[in-house]
Amino acid sequence: MNISLPDVSLTECPAVLAPLDWVGMQGIDVPLWLAEFEAPQQVHAQADIQVDLPQPHTKGIHMSRLYRLLDEAVQQPLTPTLLAQLLADAIHSHADCHSRRARLQLRFALLARRAALLTPGLAGWKSYPVQVRAQWQDGHLSLHTSVEIVYSSTCPCSAALTRQLVEQAFTAHFAGQEQVSRSDAAAWLRQQATLATPHSQRSVARVRVSLPATAATLGLLPLIDTVEAALATPVQTAVKRADEQAFARLNGQNLMFVEDAARRVQQALHEYQDASVQVQHLESLHPHDAVAWAGPDHTQATAPASHL
Question: What is the DSSP string of 154-170?
């Protein structure tokens, strides 16, 4: 049906003869089937897909070929094998353009159900922004995933200053008494122990790891679980008072500067290849944030993983 329709990408030469590193599309809305659960989970994603254009005399690539390949691929569960095949097909579909490289980026949110800390049967949903970057060149797949985890951080310095104020107030209240009964001390603490409180804030850890092309899945949930376990204070979903109290205890037992958080996550990711970490504490004391990076190519973990 296209025999009589003009195709200037084939019949015309570019005004400027120069190769291009990447050409393609960005921000394509697609459904994805995540193979991270017992039953695949469908999510809304945005995709960027491109190939290189090494021949200076070739005016343009075939965008529709890339779109159709992507549309066919997303009907199946997302795995490294699927990504490798999609990118290899993208290069093959542009043999007439002499393309040798292809790349894909996916942005989406993984939705996981998280149990309350203590209350049996209580749970809620938590969203984790994700990026997947894949590139195919010379028969080899390079694959990276990035995830974003929100947690709570309580400042160790603020906690120490708070404890000093409580100590001073306790000493002043019971001044002149050589002995204080357990009941009197308990009553004072029940009323006055929070006369000063350390500052805490919602915080964000962004991690980026390299995955082997032979992996069965992207391993997103195990990666998220590893980071949350290292930080110990991931934000909660559904809570009752007992869960809120347990969360307060976790914060008190895991005081951390931004440096502490970055080191915890860095250590927890020792089994992953090329792990990069960025942590950001959205300060409640200051109008600016505290940040720390660790690992190779840390700039890749700087931007939020999802812009959906």
Answer: E-HHHHHHHHHHHHHHH
Query: Is 2 inside any structural domain?
Result: no
- The CATH number of whichever domain residue 103 belongs to comes to 3.10.270.10
> For a pLDDT cut of 90, what percent of the chain falls above it?
87
Token pair recorded at residue 131: 């990026």
| Span 245-259, pLDDT tens digits | 999 999 999 999 999
In a domain, 178, yes or no: no
pLDDT at 14: 82
Q: Give buried/exposed letters for 66-88 (b at 16+ CB in 10 A, else e).
A: bbebbeebbeebbbbbbbbbbbe
Q: Residue 185 in contact with residue 171, Cβ under 8 Å?
A: no
Number of structural domains in the chain:
1
DSSP for 107-155, written as a single string: EEEEEEEEE-SSSTT-EEEEEEEEEEEEEEETTEEEEEEEEEEEEEEE-
256: containing domain: 12-155+199-301
Torsion of CA 293, 48, 112, 84, to 10 degrees: -90
Residue 145 lies in a domain: yes
Q: Which stretches of 211-284 are DSSP H helices?
A: 220-231, 241-253, 258-268
pTM of the model: 0.90
Q: Mean pLDDT across the stretch 280-289?
A: 95
d(CA 292, CA 203): 12
Tokens of 81: 């094998």
* pLDDT tens-digit map of 143-164: 999 999 999 999 999 999 999 9
What tokens appear for 97 in the block?
């353009």
Residue 187 lies in a domain: no
